[in-house]
Amino acid sequence: MPKPFWQRKTLKEMTTAEWESLCDGCARCCLEKLEDEDTGKIYYTNVACRLLDCEACRCSDYENRMSRVKDCVKITPEEQFFWLPKTCAYRRVAEGKDLEWWHPLVSGNPETVHEAGISVRGRIGGVEGKVRVRDYDQHLVRWPLLENAKPKPKKKKPQVKKA
Ligand code: SF4
Ligand code: SF4
Fold first, then answer.
1. Where are the domains of the chain?
2. Span 111-144, pLDDT tens digits
3. Which of 108, 151, 137 is nearest to 46 (CA)?
4. For the CA of 27, the nearest atom of ligand 2
5. How far apart are CA 61 and CA 110, in angstroms?
6. 22-59 burial by CB neighbour count: b if 16+ within 10 A, else e?
């Protein structure tokens, strides 16, 4: 069987459809971040971008996101990926890593990114505009930078009924 596209293509070689499908739908990159001006280090908060649909973990206006949110970053193959979570599929492929079991392209199920505890669903502590920027330091969280997925659920063995 041929290898899947993310194992045999570089980010630059992917088609637009492949590129878009590579996003796992975690929305970690849609959390507000603080940058240390001296070191360049990025700190994640649990405050969501105002356009994020926090339940679906999808941008509510993906087509117009760049004009509506000035600091939304369009991820491209030329991007510096260091600021993205280590779980991010773009960063993983750029670093020569494979996708994990919970990635929808691997599992065939868009829910596994949520079931594995990778997405931001249920973990949002505020929304941009409702939380004052000066209070962001009270919303700093480490989990978006961790690779702390829940283990893959084991398949249940079929029950054999006694006659
Ligand atoms: S962190 Fe990466 S994989 Fe997750 S939503 Fe953002 S771009 Fe997609
Ligand atoms: S505008 Fe959309 S894609 Fe950009 S950070 Fe906000 S929710 Fe995410």
1. 5-145
2. 999 999 999 999 999 999 999 999 999 999 999 9
3. 137
4. 8
5. 19
6. bbbbbbbbbbbbeeeeeeeeebbbbbbbebbebeebeb
Nearest atom of ligand 1 to the alpha carbon of 57: 5
Measure 67 CA to ligand 2 centroid, in angstroms: 11
Give the Å distance between the CA of 50 and the centre of ligand 2. Answer: 8
**pLDDT tens-digit series, residues 44-77:** 999 999 999 999 999 999 999 999 999 999 999 9
Integer Cα distance of 134 and 118 in angstroms: 27
pTM of the model: 0.93
CA of 51 to the centre of ligand 1 (A): 15
Contacts for 5 with CB less than 8 Å, ≥ 6 apart? 14, 18
